Amino acid sequence: MSSLIVSTGLLERDFYLRPTLEVAHDLIGKYLVYKTEAGLLSARLVEVEAYIGEDDLACHASVGITKRNAVMYGMGGYSYIYFIYGMYYCLNVVTEDEGFPAAVLIRGAEPVEGMELMRHHFGDDKHNLLTNGPGKLCKAFALTRKENGIDLTGNRLYLEDRGYKVGKIGRSTRIGINKGIEKKWRFVELNSQYLSAKIK
DNA sequence: ACTGGGATTTTCT
DNA sequence: GAAAATCCCAGTG
Q1: Does the pLDDT at position A4 exceed 80?
Q2: Between the CA of A86 and the C1' of B11, what is the distance in angstroms?
Q3: Domain segments of chain A: what residues?
Q4: CA distance A94 to A79
């Protein structure tokens, strides 16, 4: 957290190979950047959730390794994208060292670049908030199963520090789960207009 | 403000 | 065959 040297630019491997709660906290205020054929998309993260290990009953790895969750068992700094509820994808950032399954779910962000392309991906123009919620964020960015397992230290899909000064950060329980509901592993930038749900 | 249900299909038991 | 780390809409109070 505060022990990190202040620097801007691409988040390198070391950023991800740390305890997941630290990574989750530090991801708030960082920029998600995706270079597509049609243009560049970016958004500043305002809401994330940590899913940590097989003992975390809400974590996909709680049932052991499967075809779907395999990248969570790999080294930190890779994308984990899964399909859910028959129609949505969710983007995670894998954390910690190889062999320990953990990731941070990206739940909300403020659009920065490529708003028109995001709107186009959405397919309609009646939405104002295109990236407040994990399913909506992936839809706006057009991220699908094909983007699962991407190295986030590369130059196609990555996170970077642009020197943004983060506002007050709040914590709460995680959204949309039935088990592990006691853990306060959701981090949000409190004054953001781009949260998927108000903090309790 | 709060509640409940429907959409839609992959994934794992 | 059931559940799912979601989202939106319609109904009620």
Answers
A1: no
A2: 10
A3: 10-189
A4: 6
DSSP β-bridge partners for residue A91? A81
Measured in whole angstroms, the distance separating CA A4 from the mean position of its chain's CA atoms is 20
Distance, CA of A29 to CA of A162 (rounded, Å): 9
CATH, domain A10-189, list 3.10.300.10, 3.40.50.620, 3.30.360.10, 3.40.630.30: 3.10.300.10
What are the helix (H) ranges across A5-83?
A: 13-16, 20-27
| Structure-block tokens of residue A73 | 């068992």
Please write the tens of the pLDDT for every residue from A130-180: 999 999 999 999 999 999 999 999 999 999 999 999 999 999 999 999 999
Q: Which nucleotide is nearest to A83 (CA to C1')?
A: B10
Which chain C nucleotides are covered by protein, judged by CB under 7 A?
4-8
How many whole angstroms separate alpha carbon A31 and alpha carbon A177? 26
